[in-house]
Amino acid sequence: MTDERDIVGQLKKFTTCDISDALCSLKYPNGGFLSGLTMWSPERQSGSTKIAGPAYTVQYVPLSDPAPKHSTHYIDHVPSGSVVFVSSPRDVPNAVYGGLMSARAHYLGAAGSIIDGRFRDLEEQRGLNFPIFARDIGTAPPYESVKVAAVNVPVKLQSMHQNIEIRPGDYLMGDLNGVVLLPRDLAGKALELMRKRVEADGKVRAEISKGMSFAEASKRFR
To answer: Which residues contact 170 (CB under 8 A, 6 or more apart)?
Structure first.
């Protein structure tokens, strides 16, 4: 049986685009792309930062939601190697994640955090060299607007254009191209397709660089 760390190590050899290509071949919606989430730390859409790991999900809800507030702070239970995925209700102007959260996540060995909403303390995140992907940035804390209702539960991407669910343990990967979700049960099939596609694309690239048409190279090698 393939070890989870081995799967993560293999994923890091590829890009988010490679994962999406494989998932499109497997008919997974949008190739697993999670729209609107981009890199903010350690740099803004620059550098070689790449994160990959199983999702540790955090669900924020409006204060008016009848669900009780989660009894403990989620950040103290982040598994080593995981990617923290924080889900904020759509259109909340307050930040739902900050520098202290990254300090704790970094200590516990998290691979990085993805904030489906706003975060703050950008200079602290960068000072830690901690990877942050997010929808946007803000200054105000969350307490007047939202509360954590659940941890490690399925959450929906806060997008009007997609209906994608992020489940605990599904693989998340982020790089300069954006963020993708790789369902756990498709990881083996996707990795096999990714290897074949990257090898084929390498041959196509080599030939078109020498003058062969893209159509011909694609027909020959893909």
So the answer is: 54, 55, 181, 182, 183, 184
Confidence of residue 85 (pLDDT cuts 50, 70, 90): very high
CATH number of 30's domain = 3.50.30.40
Annotated binding site: 98-101, 120-121
Rounded Cα gap, residues 183 and 169, in angstroms: 8
Average pLDDT rounded to a whole number, residues 179-202? 96
Q: Is residue 79 part of a domain?
A: yes
- Say if 190 falls within a structural domain: no
In a domain, 221, yes or no: no
Cross-strand partners of 83: 55, 112
pTM: predicted TM-score of the whole model, two decimal places: 0.95
Q: Binding site for substrate, residues?
A: 98-101, 120
Domain that holds residue 170: 4-184
How many structural domains compose the chain? 1
Structure-token match 């020959």, residue found: 220
**Which residue numbers belong to the known binding site for Mg(2+)?**
121
